[in-house]
Amino acid sequence: MKYMLLMHHGNEGGGDCPPITTWAPEEVQAHIAFMIDLNKQLAAAGELVAAEGLAWPNEAKVVVSKGGAPKITDGPFPESKEFLAGFWIVDVPSEKRAIEIAARASAAPGPKGKPFGIAIELRQVMSAPHPE
Amino acid sequence: MSARRLDPATEQLLREAAPRVLGAVARRCGDFAAAEDAVQEALLAAFEQWPDQGAPANPSGWLYRIAARRVHDQRASEAARRERERATARSEHTPAPAPEPTGSADADAMHPDDTLILFFLCCHPALSETSAIALTLRAVGGLTTAEIARAFLVPEATMAQRISRAKQTLAQAGTTFELPTESERAQRLPAVLHVLYLVFNEGYAGSAGAELVRVELSSEAIRLTKLLHAMQPDERETAGLLALLLLTDARRAARTGPEGQLIPLDEQDRSKWDRAAIAAGTELIDRTIARGSVGPYQVQAAIAALHDAAPSTAATDWRQILALYDLLKRMGENPVVLLNHAVAYAMVHGPRAGLDLLQSLESDARLARHYRLDAVRGHLFEFAGERDAAIRHYLAAAESTASLPERNYLLTKAARLREFS
User: Fold this and answer.
1) Range of the domain at B45
2) Per the CB < 8 Å rule, is A36 touching B209?
3) Cα nearest neighbour of B404 on chain A
4) Is B205 inside a domain boundary?
5) Residue A125 has pLDDT above 80, yes or no
6) Domain count, chain B
7) Among candidate residues B60, B91, B122, the one where a domain is terminated
8) What is the ipTM of this complex?
9) Which of A100, B104, B130, B323 has its CA 20 to 30 A from that of B384?
10) Cβ contacts (< 8 Å) between B411 and chain A: which residues?
């Protein structure tokens, strides 16, 4: 079963966690090292399908077309502090395992080494019909 | 897939043979696209069979036979299909047998110019950069579609499609398998060099994603540039590019930390630099520049050689580097050249002067949206002792780069400065 894990920035630790742009250097490094290590472990376990970080949403756009010239707006939500920061796709035997991975990613170290508590949205990736 | 892998020396042999075999097959069947597919299949067969059976005595001959047979079979089955269609329509005619592939690939079939023809064909102006890169790596580099896909982090099916569409584009553009005239070659050489430069950069910097140095692409770019240089030793810009790649790649081991983090030039452990590559690159660029008028790759190589010769940032010959950037700017301005020029200017005339220069460039639309403008400003403000401004610009750059290692580096830079303020 494939799952997509979407990492949403902006409401960490119930919204009282300072953004990464204000952390101490060793806190930044510990966080980065944790993420690199997590990806290595998922790859070694044969569970990693894809993992990508997204560029900051400064230049993000929303494009809508109903035919003709598309409507392009800054987006997704310029005034919102919450944004999609990255995603994983994992191939795992069960939802339980996907939740385990999401929980590990969410607990990545934040300021003072405490778990960051970043929100991970878990979505199953649709597949071919089940063979009968 | 065979569990065993080819040993590196045999793999090298195979990949060196690939473009020569492709040339011979393409010449014989007159269809570059079909020949290219056939050679790819022959390469895959070699990867499959050679580890267990051992490499044949004549690897090129072996590849040629498999590829030629493949083209023949393909044509025979197409002819048979067409004949069946005609036969159903008219119920007469027996299909004429297609001629068998004759002979082995002796030295006669391999034409010395074929690899050069392939370079120009794969970097044809009708192709987009990404298509030219993919086709060059497969047809000239002898890489498999799967390897190229992995190097560029895209699905194999996507890469296969990109290559096949590139070949369709070449066919539609009416290209033929022959060496362009001398004046055409001179006109099109920059495009070939640019593709090799991009392959190297993709390996060295990684346009996106977390892996900072994708070693194999850099090495492959150097191998192909050496090949091109060996075929056209008098092309000074090819020599310049080769020197630039050697001199840049020489710093590879010092450029990343244990966690893959980016280490800038001024913080690198210079004892980790590859002295042999520096010596080779420096010798090549000195010898090339001494021969007359220079082009942009030669100037960039000369700059790289000055960096590589310096024991530290402070002891670097910045005056000479600035003069070379002045020259480079006159050859054609682009954002990266302008920013590097400003850094050199600051190293000679002080950070304030560099910042003033950047200010005057701000109206340049190409620069205004370039994340490196903020990164360079952060660097110069830090150099000038203005921490708050430096932090502000490092963070702005971190928020607009699309490279993860770069973003991590910029965030760490800002965090360090905050700690000291």
Assistant:
1) 8-91
2) no
3) A53
4) no
5) yes
6) 2
7) B91
8) 0.74
9) B323
10) 20-21, 23, 28
Measured distance CA(B338)–CA(B265) in Å, rounded: 18
What is the average pLDDT across B102-120?
74
B18 closest CA partner among B199, B161, B144: B144
Q: Which residues of B touch A53 (CB under 8 A)?
A: 210, 404, 407
Domain boundaries, chain A: 2-124
Beta strands in A10-130 (DSSP E): 48-53, 61-64, 71-74, 83-91, 119-124
Please report whether residue B282 resides in a domain: no
User: For A80-84, B15-19, B23-27, which range has the lowest pLDDT when averaged over its residues?
Assistant: A80-84
Interface residue of B263, B411, B418 to substitute, partner A, most A CBs within 10 Å: B411
A24 contacts on B by Cβ (under 8 Å): 415, 418-419
**Contact across the interface for B209 and A27, Cβ inside 8 Å:** no
Q: What is the pLDDT of residues B329-365, one digit of tens each?
A: 999 888 889 999 999 999 999 999 999 999 888 777 7
Task: Please indicate whether, in this complex, the C-beta atoms of B210 and A56 are within 8 angstroms of each other.
Answer: no
Domain boundary among B91, B124, B151: B91
pLDDT tens digits, B281-326:
999 999 999 988 899 999 999 999 999 999 999 999 999 999 999 9
For the record, the structure tokens of A44 come out as 């070694």
Distance, CA of B406 to CA of B293 (rounded, Å): 36
The strand order across the sheet containing A48-53 reads A48-53, A83-91, A2-9, A119-124
Please enumerate residues of B whose Cβ is less than 8 A from a Cβ of A.
209-210, 259-261, 395, 398-402, 404, 407-408, 411-412, 414-416, 418-419
Nearest to B331 by CA among B365, B298, B304, B296: B296
**CATH (domain of B420):** 1.25.40.10
Phi, psi of B406 (to 5 degrees): -65, -40
| Chain B contact probe: residue of A31, A32, A34 with most B CBs at under 10 A | A32
Q: Fold for domain A2-124?
A: Alpha-Beta Plaits (3.30.70)
Q: Is A60 on the interface with B (CB under 8 A)?
A: no
Decide if B226 is inside a domain. Answer: no
